[in-house]
């Protein structure tokens, strides 16, 4: 039997860092939502007790370093499953982009193997397993829109943001999340985006206030390393996006656009100098 799971990309509408913790992670406050750019996982049980990963994408690891492999290994060990699995990853989400592609694959593998092996694991337990694989994995398990705290693993579901178009543009740079957090200095934490303003904008369904409340404290770190990310933001603003922000540790920049008539102009304008541009919707 083959089963399939979608693994959507996330964007951070807001990302605040409160402090560095003793364990090396940072205490964050993030408002995250899913968009309809997704990898697709195909999973099939194997007669031999082994984990095999394949992908059409030539640029991701297919061994123990792959997050879907780690998810399969973890669930097998924890639930004593002595069966094998073949997982094919149809990658559509750009890698190391700030869109949680690897984390979402891990989450989809956990959800899918729970179904394939009829393990009956609750969503809460899946999130606990996911947190062992990465801070963003629990959110990728639950999806929708959430306020994430702790190192990103504590989730509080919130309502859907006002619907709009989302233009994603990824410059040809690979950013390391650990490097960006590692370079964050106290001076960059003197001003904070307002989580309460963003929550209120979403609750009231105010698209304008949501755009005005976008904020990401990691942006200044990535922009100082890669000025082209800042240039991309400016281009998106100039082309008419209503709100523009870098997602996660970057380098993907997203633009929120309310009017469909503006989307083609922004897409075409960006495609002139950026190869990876996507027009998507939020998953509500
Ligand atoms: C920045 C964010 C925003 O959503 O996403 P991406 O840009 O990676 O998509 C996340 O916080 C990334 O989550 P994730 O990619 O799962 O990170 P992890 O694998 O847990 O951690 C990678 C490294 O980032 C740093 N890290 C991560 C999360 C956190 N709250 N504090 C940290 O300092 C640590 O150095 C850690 O070793
Ligand atoms: N299934 C996977 N898909 C993408 N990247 C993966 C996967 N498994 C492991 N990785 C590794 O994880 C790192 C971060 O990738 P990704 O999750 O796409 O980025 P981000 O955390 O910026 O959203 C990359 O260095 C990549 O090689």
From TrEMBL:
Top class in the EC scheme: transferase
Pathway(s) annotated for this protein in UniProt: Isoprenoid biosynthesis; isopentenyl diphosphate biosynthesis via DXP pathway; isopentenyl diphosphate from 1-deoxy-D-xylulose 5-phosphate: step 3/6
Record has Nucleotide-binding as a keyword = yes
Per the database record, which ranges form the GHMP kinase N-terminal domain? 66-144
Entry's EC annotation: 2.7.1.148
Q: Where is the active site?
A: 10, 136
> Which residue numbers delimit the GHMP kinase C-terminal domain?
198-274
Query: Which terms in the Gene Ontology molecular function aspect does this entry carry?
Result: 4-(cytidine 5'-diphospho)-2-C-methyl-D-erythritol kinase activity; ATP binding
Instruction: Tell me the keywords, alphabetical order.
Output: ATP-binding, Isoprene biosynthesis, Kinase, Nucleotide-binding, Transferase
What does the entry give for GO biological process? isopentenyl diphosphate biosynthetic process, methylerythritol 4-phosphate pathway; terpenoid biosynthetic process
> What Pfam families does this protein map onto?
GHMP_kinases_C, GHMP_kinases_N
InterPro entries listed in its UniProt record: GHMP_kinase_C_dom, GHMP_kinase_C_sf, GHMP_kinase_N_dom, IspE, Ribosomal_Su5_D2-typ_SF, Ribsml_uS5_D2-typ_fold_subgr
Gene3D superfamilies in the record = 3.30.230.10, GHMP kinase, C-terminal domain
Q: Enumerate the catalysed reactions.
A: 4-CDP-2-C-methyl-D-erythritol + ATP = 4-CDP-2-C-methyl-D-erythritol 2-phosphate + ADP + H(+)
Q: Where does ATP bind?
A: 94-104
What does the UniProt function comment say about this protein?
Answer: Catalyzes the phosphorylation of the position 2 hydroxy group of 4-diphosphocytidyl-2C-methyl-D-erythritol.
The record's comment on protein family reads: Belongs to the GHMP kinase family. IspE subfamily.
The protein in question is named 4-diphosphocytidyl-2-C-methyl-D-erythritol kinase
**What organism is listed for this UniProt entry?**
Paenibacillus roseus
